[in-house]
Protein: ATP synthase subunit a
Amino acid sequence: MSIENPSATEYIQHHMQHLQSLHQQVIVDFSVFNYDTLFFSILSLLVVFFVLRLGAKKATSGVPGKMQCAVEMLVEMVNNQAKSIVHGDRTYIAPLALTVFCWVTIMNCIDLIPVDFFPWLAGLVGINHLRPLPTADLNGTLGLSFGVLCLLFYYGIKVKGFSGFIIELFTAPFGKFPLLWPVNLLMNIIEYLAKFVSLGMRLFGNMYAGELVFFLIALLGGYMLEFGLFGGAAAGIGQVIAGLVWWLFHVLIVLLQAFIFMMLTLVYIGQAHSSH
Structure:
């Protein structure tokens, strides 16, 4: 860390600072790149591809191994969800859902690594700020939801045709009466924006809160030297117990948020296949 003996506020502020191309001055600034979010997002995706490819290469028609069983159960679960939600060609949709689930899960799992580990490694090479959890960065989660939004437009046009997609924008949900066309268009724009924002904000909010709790638990260790022998021992024991309990509970959050993101992606794509 670049701050010697930081206070609790300084510690949290330091760990929540991204490795950025420029210092962000306003809320929305597309010239700023969070290099840590980009790096760990791409790294997580490469890990997903590597693990799934490794499982596919080791697949046999005989008695499956543990990894093959795990991958087959995961693929079957995702495929069943896709069948029940999307009524149409699922050639690419089921693999897409599998990729989304695994990718978001791996990114979320970074939050299970001790919060000081990656910043400590970065400090060894002279990097003062590093925030490794991509899903605790609103830029990362909105980037994922923007990709889903693009898929909604793609499948809407693919299934209904370009003219059918445009006609639906102006005629749904209140009918084909010309005076209602502006209202219908406005309602559809709001619906797409709501899907885009809520999908990204839901994942961001849950992972951001979980990351913040880990920071607060980590601060207990810093008070071990300030409370004396018995107070320090109590703070150390409290940190271990609180950290373990929250870590075990956060495993569920990590998997649940990835599952919810995958399910909402399937639901939205299923809606793009249907007509109002």
Residues 93-275 form one domain. The mean pLDDT is 89. The chain has eight helices and no strands.
